[in-house]
Amino acid sequence: xxxxxAWLANSGVVQxxxxxxxxxxxTTVLVLDAVARAxxxxxxxxSSFRPxxxxxxxxxxxxxxxxxxxxxNVFEEAAYWLxxxxxxxxxxxxxxAYRLHFPPGQLPPNxxxxxxxxxxxxxxxxxxxxxxxxxxxxxxxxxxxxxxVDILLQPRAPSGPAQxxxxxxxxxxxxxxxxxxxxxxxxxGSYEVPPIVEVV
Length: 200
Known about the structure:
By secondary structure, the protein is an alpha+beta fold.
C-alpha cells in the first residue's frame, strides 16, 4: 500500500486533484459573484439584493443569496441596503465626514423598525468612544426645522446632536441600512435611499 501511495504522490495524481479542486472552487466563486451582481440593483450608491431568500429561486440564485447574505429574510420581510461608496462613487473612509439627508417623511417606511449600522469592510462593528455603531427609529433623532433628518457619519463626535451621529471606523468602512416589515414603497421599489454626501 505504501508503494501505491508513493506512486500516486510521484505520478502527479494528487497534485492534479488539488489543482482541479482549487480551480473548481474559484470557478464557483466567480459564477456566484456574477449571479449576485446581475440580481443586485444599486441606486445612489446603495445596493440591494431583492431576490434573496425567495422561494422558487434556482440553485445558482439560492447559492448566490447565501454567499451574499447568509440566513437573510425575503425582501418583503426585511429589506437590506449596503453602501461602500458615497453618492459620488468614492469609497467610504473614516478620513472624511459624511451626511445622510432624509427629506421630510422619507425615513425608511416600515411596520416594525429600521436601523443604520457602520462596520469595517468585513462586516464587524468597531469599538469607539461613543460605544455604539448604529442609529435607528428609536434613537430620538433630532429633525431639522423643515422636518428633514440629517444623520452624521464620522469618526469624531459632531458639534450638533449626538443622537444623529453614527461613529465610523478610522479606515475604509461600509454601511448597512435595514428596514423590517418594509412599507409598500420599499417593496414596490419606488423608495430610494438618499445618497451619502461627503461634508467638506
